[in-house]
Amino acid sequence: MITTLDDISLKYHNTFGLDVATRQWIEYTELADLPALMTMVKGQRWMAIGEGSNLLFARDYDGALLHSRILTMSMATRQDGFVELTAGSGLLLDDVVDYTARNGFWGLENLALIPGQIGAAAVQNVGAYGAEIKDVIERVKVYDTVAGEFKTFGVDELGYGYRQSMFKLPENRGRYIVVEVTLRLSTTPAPRLDYGGLRQRIGDSVPTPLLLASTVATIRREKLPPVGEVGSAGSFFKNPVVDRSVLSHVEAQSSGVKVPHYELPDGSVKIPAAWLIEQTGWKGKRMGEAAVWHLQPLILVNPEMKAKPSEVLALQEAIQKSVFERFGIQLEREAEIVD
Length: 339
Known about the structure:
- By secondary structure, the chain is of the alpha+beta class.
- The protein has 8 helices and 20 strands.
- It has helices at residues 33-41, 93-102, 118-124, 198-202, 209-223, 244-252, 273-279, 309-327, and strands at residues 2-9, 21-28, 46-49, 55-57, 61-68, 73-77, 82-88, 127-128, 131-132, 137-144, 149-154, 176-186, 231-235, 241-242, 262-263, 269-270, 286-287, 290-292, 299-302, 336-338.
- The strands form 6 sheets. A 5-stranded antiparallel sheet has the order 6-7-12-10-11, covered by helices on one side. Strands 1-2-5-3 form a 4-stranded mixed sheet, with helices on one face. Strands 13-19-18-17 form a 4-stranded antiparallel sheet, covered by helices on one side.
- α2 (93-102) packs antiparallel against α5.
- The protein is globular and about 60 Å long.
């Protein structure tokens, strides 16, 4: 079923809480809706949107926003001991995490409490606490708006990297609409505890998917702004991946402070953007109605839900300028700007 609304505010359709509008809002509930939907928006600007948890609208959207309400879910057991869960793109990722954790399936537990729909998560390759959704994706079903047909891509075809996928390549922007995501999950214990203090939090308890998901959710609530109360798009910047010469430069500029970093298999290192931002004095700072979250400087916030897009963008640019001048590193946005 397709439902259309005209000229509506997006204040409650983007987690940043920016009071912008769209000319048309279209929701769809079935795979079979997609061909008719493409006919409806032919010749006009359009974009598929999830919960708006990784977006920053720079202004009103002069076009149609397409929102999945495909809420199907099915399970299948494989002969190799794994199970496959196929989720409709409109399901909230955290609801899927909760379902799998409560049923004893391993794979998604480290992604607890990440906002947004699972379809968007597969596009973004969301990650947290040492895990990324690509680690458990088996395949993704899409509607190819150019070919006018449904296609299924295996995980090896999706070009996954750090917050990257085939869907985000410039030549593919707007071509594919994710309709289903199939995950490969396990009943064999496989806890990932070597990130973010998880091992210390778990202590002597026997890890289960539910215990680990609950622990991750608790840690996230302690650090992150509550969704719906404080506007944000989650992690606003990517953690920069640099070579060792850049790390040496950062160490030289850090006045004896130990530089946290993570060794990557190719010899490069990842430096937490939050640390770089904090070192340049931005943690908890405010510009107009936009601010840097006082508990996690990787997150830009709309504290009283009064910020204009221009204020958030000005804060972003000021932070990037400070980090570049101090450390020679150009921070890249993780949040997507919709202009």
